[in-house]
Amino acid sequence: MVEFETLKSKEVKFGKNSFIEISKRKVKTPIGENEFIAISRGYYLPDKTKRWRASIALPNEKDKRKEIAEIITSFDKD
Q1: Maximal C-alpha separation, the chain
Q2: 15 is in which domain, residue-wise?
Q3: How many structural domains are present in the chain?
């Protein structure tokens, strides 16, 4: 059985009812545990419940997160 646990989560709202959620998660499987960063795009229904459209998992290694952040911020320079 696979279990997911959200350790920390933050949200960035944009547009009329959209958001991006950045979270640190832990996956537990019969063969071990692993932490990763999840970036998910979603939207709010009229009753304010969340729905997700897409998600990507990033490695939890500090150097890889830093490299990804530098690439994203480098687009401001173009």
Answers
A1: 46
A2: 3-77
A3: 1
